[in-house]
Design goal:
Strand 2 and strand 3 form a beta hairpin. The chain starts with 5 loop residues before the first helix and ends with a helix. Helices cover 36% and strands 20% of the residues. By secondary structure, it is of the alpha/beta class. The strands form 3 sheets. A 6-stranded mixed β-sheet has the order 3-2-1-6-4-5. Strands 8-7-9-10-11 form a 5-stranded parallel β-sheet, with helices on both faces. It has a two-stranded antiparallel ribbon with strand order 12-13.
Length: 322
């Protein structure tokens, strides 16, 4: 956690967006009772759970981080009530998610969490006038766009959020597409005729490139505007990219089922639930923990740990019923 102020937080979020880093912005919009937060307090949460800024103490922070990671993955904002809904007689507005926090405080927070969408990342492979025009046009939209000559292009130049246009005009198109496909970007387009494209994709299939990768290649790249000049081809390609983004068709490639299951198990193991108050806690170094019946239990506070230690059987039975 870093001590950043309100404007600093917004500037850092904008900079992360320009770098193509996904994150979420959390803002305290209401406070009740005892809480170290104030309305207007802000924090940035990264996809790996890092927190920059201030959103509250040990009770609120783990819940906000967990919910912010959901927001980053879904791209949909959330309004959270952190506290006990009984404080409000059950009058919780529709659409608000309720997350129980600390059992030792009557404080409550409303936190609005919104995704910070990364600036689009376009990589054009080639050195033709059309390639340069395409990069310049994308930059005029505020995109992060770069032109890389074919021999200098590597899969590490892109990631799963990137859009890649191969415009090498027959100079090693096959190897450029193969390198791009290895990174599984959100978009791969080849500038060339359908006949040329079929030959390139057939060659890559014979080399063993997975068909699911090849099926993602758009050839010829761009909308069919009936254009022939280099600037018009660049317009057609950029128009297709804008259209696909607006339609939500440029999705991040999903990990394999096995990898996804492993990541899910790790996340669950790292964020257990306090058996006393039901709050999500972080199972890291220094966490409050107690071993009982060959199992580790984690707690949000010393009060919960003491309550569990006084009568572990009742809490274990309660957890089993749930």
């Amino acid at each position: 956690m870093s001590p950043l102020g309100g404007l600093d937080i917004l500037e850092q979020a904008a900079e992360m967006s320009r770098r193509g880093e996904a994150c979420a912005l959390a803002t305290v919009v209401w406070r009740h009772g005892q809480s170290s937060s104030q309305p207007g307090s802000r924090a940035i949460i990264t996809a790996d759970g890092g927190l920059h800024g201030w959103i509250g103490g040990a009770c609120a922070e783990p819940a906000v981080i967990r919910e912010a990671q959901h927001v980053i993955r879904s791209g949909t904002a959330r309004l959270l009530l952190l506290g006990d809904p009984a404080q409000f007689g059950g009058a919780v507005p529709d659409g608000m998610a309720v997350v129980p926090i600390s059992c030792q405080s009557d404080g409550a927070l409303e936190v609005y969490i919104e995704p910070v969408v990364p600036v689009p990342h376009l990589v054009v492979v080639g050195r033709s006038p059309m390639a340069r025009t395409l990069v310049s046009m994308a930059q005029s939209l505020g995109w992060r766009a770069s032109l890389i000559d074919g021999p200098d292009f590597a899969a590490s130049d892109v990631d799963e959020r990137s859009m890649v246009v191969v415009a090498t005009q027959g100079h090693h198109d096959e190897s450029m597409l193969e390198r791009a496909a290895a990174a599984r970007p959100a978009y791969i387009g080849l500038v060339g005729s359908r006949t040329r494209g079929a030959a390139v994709l057939g060659y890559l299939a014979d080399r063993g490139v997975p068909q699911e990768y090849l099926d993602r290649v758009r050839v010829p790249a761009g909308l069919d505007l009936g254009s022939t000049t280099h600037p018009e081809i660049a317009v057609a390609i950029l128009a297709e990219l804008v259209q696909l983004r607006a339609a939500g068709a440029l999705t991040v490639s999903a990990p394999s089922a096995a990898a996804g299951a492993g990541a899910s198990s790790t996340a669950q193991a790292a964020q257990p639930t306090d058996p006393v108050c039901g709050m999500t806690v972080t199972a890291g170094p220094g966490a409050l923990r107690m071993e009982y019946d060959d199992r580790s239990y984690y707690f949000c506070s010393a009060g919960c740990l003491q309550a569990f230690a006084a009568d572990p059987v009742s809490y274990v039975k309660k957890e089993t019923r749930c």
